[in-house]
């Protein structure tokens, strides 16, 4: 088993839209253990957190998740 840490940064027109997209991404990644046999577990490490993109001040959300993945023996 190994843990893959994924950071997603989402930029959008508004804070609300950025959070909406981040929530959808978190939901989809959370489904991976059900649909991808190598992915055994999903965990949230941080976020989603609103972090404006300086100096442009564009709404941005950061989300970090961990996927526990079981490796396969190459054939």
What does this structure look like?
With 75 residues, the chain is α+β, with helices and mostly antiparallel strands. It has helices at residues 15-30, 32-35; strands at 2-11, 39-50, 60-69.
What labels would you give this structure?
75 residues, alpha+beta, three-stranded antiparallel sheet, 2 helices, 27% helix
- Strands ordered across the widest β-sheet: 1-3-2
Coarse morphology: elongated
Number of strands: 3
* Main sheet attributes: strand count, strand direction, barrel closure: 3 strands, antiparallel
CA-atom Rg in angstroms: 15 Å
The percent range for helix content is 25-40%
Summarize the structure.
The protein has 75 residues and is of the alpha+beta class.
Compile the SSE list and pairings:
Layout (H helix, E strand, L loop, with lengths): L1 E10 L3 H16 L1 H4 L3 E12 L9 E10 L6
Antiparallel strand pairs: 1-3, 2-3
């Amino acid at each position: 088993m190994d843990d893959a840490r994924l950071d997603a940064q989402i930029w959008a027109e508004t804070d609300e839209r950025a959070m909406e997209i981040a929530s959808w991404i978190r939901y989809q990644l959370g489904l991976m253990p059900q649909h991808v046999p190598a992915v055994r577990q999903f965990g949230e490490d941080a976020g989603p957190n609103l972090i404006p993109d300086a100096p442009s001040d564009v709404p941005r959300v950061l989300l970090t998740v961990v996927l526990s993945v079981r490796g396969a023996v190459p054939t």
